[in-house]
Amino acid sequence: MAVWPAHGSKIVPWKSSGRPPREDREFTEVEVSLPPLIADLWFEPGRETIVALEEAAIAISSLDVTAASRMAAISGFLLRSEAVSSSKIEHVDAKRNDYARAMIGLKATDQANSMVAAAEAVQGMINDAGTTGEIRLEALLAAHKTLMKNDPMDGTHAGSFRGVQNWIGGSDYSPRGAIHVPPPAELVPGFMDDLMAFSARRDVPIMAQAAIAHAQFESIHPFTDGNGRIGRALIGAVSRRRGLTKNTVIPIASAMVADVESYFSLLNNYRNGEVDPFVLYLAKSSLRAAEAARESVASLDALPAAWMEAARPRKGSADEKIIPWLLERPVFEAHSAASIAGVEERSIYRVLDRLTNAGILAQITQSQRNRAWAATEVLDEVDRLNRRLAARDA
Prior knowledge:
The protein is mainly alpha-helical. Helix content is 59%, strand content 6%. It has two domains: 8-295, Fic-like fold (Orthogonal Bundle), CATH 1.10.3290.10; 303-384, Winged helix-like DNA-binding domain superfamily/Winged helix DNA-binding domain (Arc Repressor Mutant, subunit A, Orthogonal Bundle). It contains 16 helices and seven strands. Strand 6 and strand 7 (372-374) form a beta hairpin.
């Protein structure tokens, strides 16, 4: 079996800024990690990994075909699942109604807006890979800009590689005790060019390529913040570029968030040259995510009939026209509903009140101005998906 090289390292000087504690002031040099160049490395999966990669590819492509017939509803759900879970891994979370308000541009918390930005970043990167047939550095930087441009701390660095040394864990003032110290900032462009070359290959199994690209990206850690969410978006982009998916985003982060400790542990072990265990982990996570997502698709498919039973709308009424639309647009304002129903906006409020009383909708705004509603069963399916995956890992 071909051996995947461990990361190298070198010692560089360090000087803490600000007013650090004495231990950080005395910290004068740091050992930085130097990932191997992987553009031309050969990966040879183990027997268990070969089987897992094949099973994952079958499950993913099957889910993608299933979603094609109702693309807007299902792909929207899967995108939300991936963005929400990827954000949760980074401890970015928001209450359901707050996230719903952010989805349609209403006032919401920074965390809710960040989750919406994550969905836009993921979608942009994956769409670019599908349209161009490439993993483009420009698209990756654009995704990072989308994700971070409104961040109060790191917005000024959005869409740009870091110009400073960063680290994972350790002190707030220095890399003292850090779990991982990525390569110095001046080496980042070269490492990223190498990663783009690896991502352009077609002689690596698709999910293996996605796993290695993600692990390598996290080792480089090219941004001041947002590395985890952009790195996980890279998994979906590789799948789209290679044609494994055409319609969907597989919610792999939903499987990761169910067991974050294993995910981070295997990422750390990748730096020791242990590539096959991480590829195996991602393949199994992809399989679990695809299987759990199929259950969500079935649950979502059943909702319109259940809603019709609860509301019992008159044939041809505005109520009847709105109900099937809720899968595609689970969060909306009155003017959108009026447009779909083909009625004036002043008439739609009675319709929405009836659907709210039937338990189909919930108003997510407090004031009477800029009122908005959500089909909460659709939004809550993201949490149910995560709970199913957590139960399977238990």
